[in-house]
Amino acid sequence: MARSSATTQRADYQNIPDLRWVDRITRVMDSRFRIPGTNFRFGLDPILGLIPGLGDATSLAISGALIYYMAKHGVSRKVVIMMLGNVALDATFGSIPILGNVFDFLFKANTRNIRLLKRHYEEKKYQGKGTGLLVGIALFIFGAIGLIIYGTYKLIGYLMTIQIA
Hints:
Number of helices: 8
Order of helices and strands: HHEEHHHHHH
Number of domains: 1
Helix content: over 70%
Strand content: under 5%
Radius of gyration: 18 Å
Number of strands: 2
Largest sheet: 2 strands, antiparallel
């Protein structure tokens, strides 16, 4: 009986088009490619991270859109906060030159977030829509993107003033 309940729950998750979209985008961002001869997978996220500032902002915007869609379909406030923590950690460490690129290959925030979403659905804790929460997520994402762009601008400005002796 519990087995059919879990199967039905998974089917419910898979039948929501926006959540299938989230699943596909997560795979593209975190695990689309495989290094031949290994089981190590990576996606576009670490590749985008090679573009200073803009790549990290793009990855953050995509992660924010994924969280938005997950929250739109009833993920609890606690889960959304955990997801935002994963994305904030990814954006913070991912913006560090060179080490951030390595971090992006290993951390995979979107995959962690989709696991949280699936667990949330399997536990039947999903609710309704949280408009206020969605507005908060949007403000957080736009603020973080703004800080990344501003930080990149300041860093480039600083680097331009350094004179090679």
